[in-house]
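Could you help me review a protein record that somebody else here produced? My question to you is simply how this chain folds and whether the tokens agree. Thanks in advance; the entry in question is below:
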Amino acid sequence: MLELHQKQELQQKLSPQQIQYIKLLQLNTLDLEQRIKDEMAENPLLEEGVEDAELESREEAETEQEMENELETDDPDEEEFDLDELLNNPDDLYGYKANPNRGDEDDEYRRQMRASTSLAEDLNEQLSLLNLDETEQLIADQIVGSIDEDGYLRREVESIIDDILFNQNVEVTEDDVEAVLKQVQSLDPAGIAARDLQECLLIQLRRMPDDIEGRDIAVAMLEDHYKAFTMKHFGKLKKRLDIDDRALKTAFDLIQQRLDPKPGEGTFSEETNYITPDFTVRYVDEDFVITLNGQNAPDLRISRHYRRMLEKMRAEQKKEEETSSVDKETKSFLKNKFESARWFINSINQRRHTMTLVMDAIVQLQEDFFRYGEGHLKPMILQDVADIIDMDISTVSRVVNGKYVQTEFGVYELKYFFSEGLETVDGEEVSNKEVKAILQQIVDDEDKTDPMSDQALADTLEERGFKIARRTVSKYRKQLGIPVARLRKEIVLEDEEA
């Protein structure tokens, strides 16, 4: 039996302006630059301001004060299109300057660090020297296009064959693909287009001169005893290869120190990414100077050309002219674009205000770090910042995510400053990042012939005043990228120990 029920709920919906502000808040400096360019391309009423924009805004504001503030009209189509309301607010027109503190000295603190360079074009240039025929070139293009960012080819040969047949209507065999793949693997960097780590390392070893010490043993070890190599079963390797400690160590060192397990990492992406700090923080004359970097964001204002059109429309309305030189469709277009531009400028302003508040709160909570640098980080969570600026924790999270700050000690992601606290045996609260740094030091200094287990690491930390469970040590070790004890084992010769 069907029944009808009424239920009353209270729901909070975000306005388009709030949604726009939230989206802008999530953007870093470079993404904001592109977002502003896109908005200016879409909205003709937005334009870049000139150097005397503030002076012009004051002069126009004074002129507008002499005009009437309300428009009386009987035309229902004009009821919501109050030109005076739109035009008589210079703050909306000129309220955004990307960086009020902009100056030459900002260049000293602005850092752009190259994160990756393109290799795809370089590989294609090298392929052009191999004198491939048309079919081989199709196969090579498909292989290069399938290489992952770390330089590996993880697509199956059968999939490459299917792709060429589907996209180019050309039939090739598995032998055809394997033959071209060998030629791609002969390109630089050595190890590119390998299908797994074993193949990647072997490609690099085989391209070394035959007289490199340890090369032949390393090749034999990877070809015939790869599992024992990955497990660091030194005893088995010495027995199977009939070698002593010195020969085994030479081969291992050759692999670990001379070979690249990810030949394409940081180089294969076709896009060049940059880290541009969103803030700079300086300690000057016993005070912190916080600057929101806006060098990539132009000054914004309402277009003077369209502003004159709006003023003309207002004048015609005031004279009660029956025939206007601007049709209703144009008026509606101008009204919508004007409001969109105003919302965008206000959202940019609100973003700048919120980001500055968050950065200021972080500096307050991490004052010792910004004065003295590493080793002075305090436990801090998002809620601590939210409490200071009286905003929702989600707002703080959006500001922190993907943003960077230039300090006197280098560039740091804002997430770096947030960490949980741990209590020492003396009752002092420290950041877990400090504990991780100590854990890394302990591992670096351990006996490599007998690496410490997670429980031994926990015991050592407790001796230093940090009582931490073994499972927590294991978690921190994984976060630091430290292998388990067995895989940290190294061959140390007797003369090296002495």
About this structure: Residues 457 and 473 are 7 Å apart (CA to CA). The chain has a mean pLDDT of 79.
